[in-house]
Structures are given as C-alpha cells and as structure tokens.
Amino acid sequence: MQALTFLARYPFLEEAKEWVRDRQFTIDQMLSPESEGIQRRALERVDDSIEGREIAYDVRGRSGEEVEILSYPVSRFMVAAVGDPNLIKWFSHHEGERARSLLEKEDPSRVLQIGEELGFPAIGHPPDLEPETGARREVVKGVRALDYSHEAENREYWVRFTGYLPPKRNISGPEWDLSNQAIRKGYVRLNRRTYIRMVQELVKARVEEGLYRKMELPRNSALSEMIGGLRTKVEGRKRRYSPVEMGRITITRLPPCMRQILGMSQAGENLPHHARFALVTFLNAIGMSSEEIFKVFTGVPDFKEDIVRYQVEHITGTTSATSYTTPNCDTMKTGGICFNPDTLCDKEWLINPLKYYRIKGRNRRAEEKKDQPTSR
C-alpha cells in the first residue's frame, strides 16, 4: 500500500480508488453533516477550476490527507451532476495542472510509476543499448557529484511510438513533431519535462472518464443547493466572458486553419501558444478589436483574465510599440497548425492566411454582382 501522502497527491490512481472503496464511502455518507469538511474541499476543487485559480497544495497530517483523497470522488460527482461540458474541461485541466506541478517535484521512480499506470511506461535507455553496469559517481578533489535535481532533469525517458501518439494529439508545436524527436527501434526519447507534460494529458483524460454520462441525483436538499450553486458559478463565468459575436467578420471566408483554431477555442480546448498568436494576429488584421479578440479565448480551460488580456493587447499593439503580423503558411505548417488545407490553400501563390480571406471576399463580391438583375 502506498503512503497516504502519495495517494493524496494523486487521487486519480487506482490504489486511491481502492482506498476509498475500502472505507465504503457512499453518497449518503458524502452528504452527511459528518462529511462537511470533505464537501467543502470538494466544492473548493471545483470552484478553483471554474475561476482558473493558481494551483496550491498545502495538505498536512493524516486527517488532511484523508480529506484530500475523499474530496476527489466527491468533486467528480459534483462536476458530473452539473453536466456542463465546459465545466468538465475546466475541471480536468485544473486537476491535470495540479498533477503536473506535483510531478515536477517528484522522485523519478514515482514519475515512472504514475506514467506506467496511465498506460505510458518508459525505459531509461534506448531499447538496443543496455545501460552501463557498475557505474558510480565519485567526488574528485572536493567537487560534488551531480545533485538529484540535475540528474533528474537529464534523465532520458524512452516511450513506445504507439504510446507517444495519443497524448501528443492534444499538444502541438515543432518541439513535439516526430521529425524533431530521437527515435530508435520504435521508441521515442523524451526528457523529464516533456514526459511529465504528456503524463499531464493522460491525467486529464482519466479525470474526464465517466463525467459526460447523465446521472440521476438522489433527492437531497443539501446536494441540490451545492449543485445549484456550482451551476450559477459556471453560468456566471460564461456571462462574464460572453462569446464574441463575429459581426462583420464572415466565417465562411476564414481559411481552414483559422476556422479550426477558432473552433477549438469555442469548444473549450486549450490552444498552444503559436496557435493563439496566429489567431490573434489574424483577427486583428481583419478588423476585430482587442476586446473582441480577448473574448474569443475566455472559454479555454486555462483561461486567466490578466494573462490573456496582456497577451492580446501586446500582440495587437494596444500596449506595445508593435502590432504583429499573421504568420505565413510555411510557418503555420512548421508549427503544426495548418489544418485541412483546401484547393485554394494549395495554390503556390497562397502564402498567408490573410490572402485567403481577402480572395474569398473578392470572390463573394463577384458572385453577388453576377446575381444582381441587369438594368434594361
């Protein structure tokens, strides 16, 4: 049995679930006055995900660790009961970020243990090269051997190619392209940071398991009050950052890449930095204000108002001396954000998403002019 401290940090693990089952923690117990502390912590977990608060972990003592473990299934129950897809995304993102921040301070063996349970095992050396045996670090002339943190950061994590692909689907950018990875005998090499980043995606997937199923709630006034309060908070965030009306911007003229990135944002999916940068510069170039562009990103799980507003205003030149231009198509391809190119994209002279938008506009005006009745 793992130490309670470990299970409190990673309550999504099977062993943590078994620990909860062994205590026969039922819905009735969850809603009882004796579980008020657990209810409060569960509500706090969900509320933190709605508000996008910074990750904080300050759990002390056995009782605190027990509350931390038990609050996880209760918070999942609450999220499922609310039944809002946005909340599910916000919650899984927050729990994934929490796991990542803890794993970054974790012993390498623990990191590997969690990765293996999530179906992402790694080996410490290329599959066709045996590790050195009998190797040991020495202190020479008073120089200390590598400390733990340095050794951990330089550790290699070789993962199966087939295991690399699923979590990579939600992470884009040149750093993650297979063409930029060391691959040997069907294994891909990662470092500690990139391995943990991919484990984070698998944690999010595990957290989301079962949350989209509709559930019948027991009749309980306390539960109804908790769920009602969470729904109010979710709707409050949506109203506070209501989606922008595209207005004079014609969606059908958008190039496939921008349609895809915009759709991902509106669907509550996280976007890599270069995708956000491309979308901001594009929307700015076609006439949207900084405030309108800001609202495009308010539904993403990692939304933080001050950070998003600063980034948008900086890129658009509102608070900086430079208004950045939209990346060319070659740059979009290199960054892995050239989505679903059509026949117009394939034209040799189509070098920038803005050109696509302008050409579509000319074509539309020509069609409208052709359809107008001729005067006699």
In short:
The chain is an all-alpha fold and 376 residues long.
Provide structural commentary.
This protein has 376 residues and is mainly α. The chain contains 17 helices and 3 strands. The protein has helices at residues 4-9, 14-22, 27-30, 36-51, 61-82, 85-103, 108-117, 148-153, 161-168, 192-208, 221-240, 256-266, 273-285, 290-296, 305-315, 329-334, 353-371, and strands at 157-160, 183-184, 187-190. A 3-stranded antiparallel sheet has the order 1-3-2. It is globular, with a radius of gyration of 25 Å.
Distance between the termini: 90 Å
What strand line-up does the widest sheet have? 1-3-2
The helix-strand sequence is HHHHHHHHEHEEHHHHHHHH
Low-confidence stretches: 133-148
* Structural classification: mainly alpha
How many helical stretches?
Answer: 17
Mean pLDDT: 83
- Shape descriptor: globular
Overall helicity: 40-55%
Q: Quick one: biggest sheet?
A: 3 strands, antiparallel
- Rg (C-alpha, Å): 25 Å
**Could you give the count of β-strands?**
3
Strand content: under 5%
